[in-house]
Structures are given as C-alpha cells and as structure tokens.
Amino acid sequence: MITVRGLRVLLGGTVIVDGLDLDVADGEWVTIIGPNGAGKSTALRAIGGLLPFHGDISLGGTALDRLPRRERARTVATVAQSPVVPPGMLVFDYVLLGRTPYVPALGRESASDLAAVDEALVALDLVDMRARRLDTLSGGERQRVFLARALAQGARTLLLDEPTSALDIGHQQEVLDLVDRLRGERGLTVLATMHDLSIAGEYADRMVLLDGGRVVAAGTAREVLTQELLAKHYRVRVKVIDGEQGPLVVPVR
Ligand SMILES: Nc1ncnc2c1ncn2[C@@H]1O[C@H](COP(=O)(O)OP(=O)(O)OP(=O)(O)O)[C@@H](O)[C@H]1O
C-alpha cells in the first residue's frame, strides 16, 4: 500500500531524511520509532504529500506526485502532531473538513458526508462534544477530534504522528484499540510514529527504528526493541522484559 524508495527530505537546507526505504503492506500496521529529531514526523509528512521530497513514494501502486490532490486525500489521511485549528471552530465543522475531498467545488456536503461525520463522532465518543469549540477542549479530547476528522475522510491509509501523546492511559488504549479494530473492519493500513516503545510494539506488526534520518533497524517488535539497539540509538539504559503482548521497555538508572 505504501512503497518508499530512497526518500530524502531537506528542511532549511539540511538533510533530515536520508535515503529511507519503507514498505507497508495492505492492512499492515507499521510504527516508526526513534529519538527526538530522528526525522519521523518529516518522513510521515513527506509520505502524506505535505512536504517536497526526493526519491519515490507510491500509494496503492500510484506515484504520489501523480495522484491528484483530491484523490490523494481519499487515499491517505494524516493526523499531524499539532494540527492548526481555525480559531473558534466547532467540533462537528472540523470533522466535516475531512469530507472536503468528496464535496464538489461550489457544492454542498451530501447526506453521506454528514453520515460519515456522525459515524466518526460516535466511534471516538465525541457525540456530546459535537457543538463545542475545539479551543475549549482538553488536549486529549482535541486529539480524538483530529482522529475523527481522519476517519471521516474515509481514506484506506492512516498516517498517525504521535496519535496518543496527549491521551491518558485509558484513552490511549481506547484510541489504539479503535484504530486496530477499524483496521480489521475496514482493511485500513496504518503507518504511525510513537514514543512509548512498549505500546508501539504491542500494536505494530512491524517497527522501523530511525536515527539521523536513516533506518537503523526494522522488523518485529522483538527484533527492534532490544537493549543493544535502544542503548545505542536512544543513549539510554533499558531493561527489556518479555511481556504477554510483546516486549516491555523499562528505563533503568
Ligand atoms: N524548517 C526546518 N529547518 C531546519 N530543520 C528543521 C526544520 N523543521 C524541522 N527541522 C529539524 O528536523 C529534525 C527532524 O525533525 P522531526 O520533527 O522530523 O523529528 P522527529 O523524529 O519527529 O522528532 P520528535 O520525536 O522530537 O517529534 C529536527 O532536528 C528538527 O529540528
């Protein structure tokens, strides 16, 4: 579903992503991990068509630069780390923005657009907040709204940049379980970045460890979440415990 070859991204004249190769199969969940500044968000933004890049990116077999904007938006939905929210915007109207690729120019949203918004609000437990202004919500509530907009967009591929960073442990699990359930029900493909390594390992089919804009390890959680790799690339001493759902990473003093 996602194929990336030799991706290079420069920001402000500096190489931030340096020759990234990545494959995400249809229906697969791949999570990119790596220390701060490794280039995770930059790679994700390039794959979502939000940044200029060198190299090849294709989505569902079509080169990203050959997908017209509307079609790209129906193919891939990105949830950025801190999306810009128009001041005073209501939850419902923000989620409705996810339907923009389906609304004809100068036309109005259809009943199926409104139904998709309602469905996303229900899925993320936001029905009671539909008329609230986004700027009155807590960080976690806002993060659920961002995800709702991506779901309403109806794309088969979700790019999630730190989707749970503002969520408490209960909502973290709820949101990730929901994404995983939708992945099964709707055949979604997920490419995410995450900092919580144990949780990342629990949900991902495969992980990619990025450091200095390059892939330094890739494989299953057990292959990537090792003491040696984490010590080398995060410069931290950790204990990796074999948990039921995958490796549990615990920093040690
Ligand atoms: N416009 C810019 N000009 C120069 N450097 C930039 C620019 N934007 C981002 N960077 C740098 O690119 C590097 C990678 O940033 P990116 O946000 O992709 O990292 P990340 O792995 O997602 O980090 P984090 O875990 O902190 O979110 C950082 O060192 C950042 O300072």
UniProtKB/TrEMBL annotation:
UniProt key word 4Fe-4S: no
Keywords: ATP-binding, Nucleotide-binding, Translocase, Transport
MF GO annotations: ATP binding; ATP hydrolysis activity
Keyword DNA repair attributed: no
Domain ABC transporter: 2-237
One protein family per Pfam: ABC_tran
Protein name (record): Iron complex transport system ATP-binding protein
